[in-house]
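Proteins fold reproducibly. Next comes an illustrative record:
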Amino acid sequence: MNKNIICSLLLTLVSLGADAQQKSVKGQEPGQTADTAIVLNYGYQAIDTILCSKSPDTFRQIREAEAVVQGITDQKAKNRTVVGYVLSHPDSDGSVYLLGHVMGVGNGKKCLSALSERARNGNMKKLYDAYVAGMKEFDEMTAKTREACPIGKEAKDFTLEDINGKQLTLSSLRGRYVMLDFWGSWCVNCIAAFPDMKAFYEHYRDKLEILGVAFHDTKDKWKAAVEKNKLPWKLVIDTEGTDSVAERYGIIAAPTYVLIDPEGKVVEWTIGSHESIEEYLMAL
């Protein structure tokens, strides 16, 4: 097989991975992406076979990178391991291969910028270019969030119905850090993040309050998800329409996390992973 076939296959896999993520954001059920997972699995096996015959060094580097994360089931630990590997192996094709495992936009940009010219322009160039293009597209998509939720500015106040049917106002929580968690019962990634979030909340609850803001949801499904996952933090449900809190905050995907300081100002926001928020709190 020639290089064009390898590159086409790599780009197809990147596209499929993005499609799987998009489906979870739009609220489709996990089973609807099962076909994507199968194609991704066998696709990467095919890449291994191709690279083994065309470039033994690249194949070896990918296998070495895979071995580093193999068996790590905790996503947070896996992410730290991947980021650490990429930063310490900037010349490796395996580092480019591992970019698909990086969680958090900040970590993604850090890893992309750390890669050497050799890694960027080697056998994995097309995959690297695809990730760079994806990051650029992400920046364009999140321009709405950056404009609506600027760092250093006062967070937009709101009042919504909580899980007990009472009205809760964001500004009533001033005096502590507040992390807004924009989520929905339809969001697979949001639900998957709850175990880690519970540990995070338990560790920082002396100075942090989490306020879960469900959007694009129904009360019945929202309450069922809260009960099933036994969420211990404050919870409200958003209204629909142009006056919705999610719309006012420029939310384009779930989960999105917004950290507000005790004075009511936005100090950090992130999509997909709250790791950068945890790093912020750890530095206090």
In short: Residues 3-26 form the longest helix (24 residues). The CA atoms of residues 5 and 48 lie 13 Å apart.
